[in-house]
């Protein structure tokens, strides 16, 4: 999102809040609880089997493999979640790309979100809604203002 849009949204929210649902209605973010805890647990098991050998059990990477926490967040920021899903689906695991099923990959993406301290929710992440979910590296401004 452009800075100008963020500022306008923040100003509108401050003026009209509380009680009036204004800024960013219908927009979904990775901060909105887009996966469930059981799903992230399934993802953890799959990650251990297929990814941790290179990216590390704690997702911190090593000298030749990038971390999937920390700078991972700004790296994907501004995209939608399908970009990460597509990358994992087609390029990972590096020694056997594309070998995991779509449901395995959504579970692994859920685990990556959890590992980056993003909140879980009541609905599972599925391949159908990935494009509607914005990858914001920081919690969107309007959400703060509404609290
Ligand atoms: C054989 C080692 C290896 C395995 C196994 C592996 N990766 Fe990777 N991964 C890499 C390397 C090396 C890169 C960097 C590739 C590049 O820069 O082109 C990478 C890059 C990535 C990236 C992008 C890095 C970033 O900065 O965001 C993601 C996401 C990712 N891997 C996820 C996974 C997932 C999920 C799995 C398991 C399904 C997995 N990887 C398994 C070696 C591996």
How many domains comprise the coordinates? 1
What fold name stands as the CATH topology?
Answer: Cytochrome Bc1 Complex, Chain D, domain 2
CATH architecture verdict? Orthogonal Bundle
- Strand numbers in spatial order across the main sheet: 1-2
Mean pLDDT: 86
Biggest sheet, open or closed, and with what strands and sense?
A: 2 strands, parallel
SS class? mainly alpha
How many angstroms does the end-to-end distance come to? 21 Å
% residues in beta strands: under 5%
CATH class: Mainly Alpha
User: How helix-rich are the residues, as a percent range?
Assistant: 40-55%
Task: Output the radius of gyration.
Answer: 17 Å
- Total DSSP helices: 7
Ligand kinds? heme C
Runs in which pLDDT lies below 50 for 5 or more consecutive residues are: 14-24
Q: SSE string, helix = H, strand = E?
A: HEHHHHHEH
The CATH H-level superfamily is Cytochrome c-like domain
Structure description:
This protein has a single domain, classed as Cytochrome c-like domain (Cytochrome Bc1 Complex, Chain D, domain 2, Orthogonal Bundle). The two termini are 21 Å apart. The protein contains 7 helices and 2 strands; from the N terminus they run H-E-H-H-H-H-H-E-H. A two-stranded parallel sheet has the order 1-2. With 147 residues, the chain is mainly alpha-helical. Bound molecules: heme C. Heme C is lined by residues 50-51, 53-55, 64-66, 68, 72, 75, 87-88, 92-95, 100, 108.
Quick summary:
By secondary structure, this protein is an all-alpha fold. Helix content is 46%, strand content 3%.
């Amino acid at each position: 999102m452009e800075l100008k849009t963020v500022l306008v949204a923040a100003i509108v929210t401050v003026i009209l809040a509380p009680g009036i649902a204004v800024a960013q209605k219908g927009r979904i973010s990775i901060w909105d609880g887009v996966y469930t805890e059981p799903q992230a647990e399934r993802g953890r098991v799959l990650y251990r089997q297929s990814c941790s050998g290179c990216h590390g059990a704690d997702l911190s990477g090593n000298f030749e493999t990038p971390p999937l926490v920390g700078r991972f967040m700004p790296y994907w920021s501004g995209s939608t979640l399908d970009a990460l899903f597509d990358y994992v689906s087609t390029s990972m695991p590096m020694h056997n790309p594309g070998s995991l099923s779509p449901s395995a990959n959504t579970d692994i993406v859920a685990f990556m979100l959890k590992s980056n301290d993003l909140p879980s929710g009541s609905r599972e992440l599925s391949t159908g809604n990935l494009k509607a979910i914005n990858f914001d590296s920081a919690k969107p401004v309007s959400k703060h203002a509404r609290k």
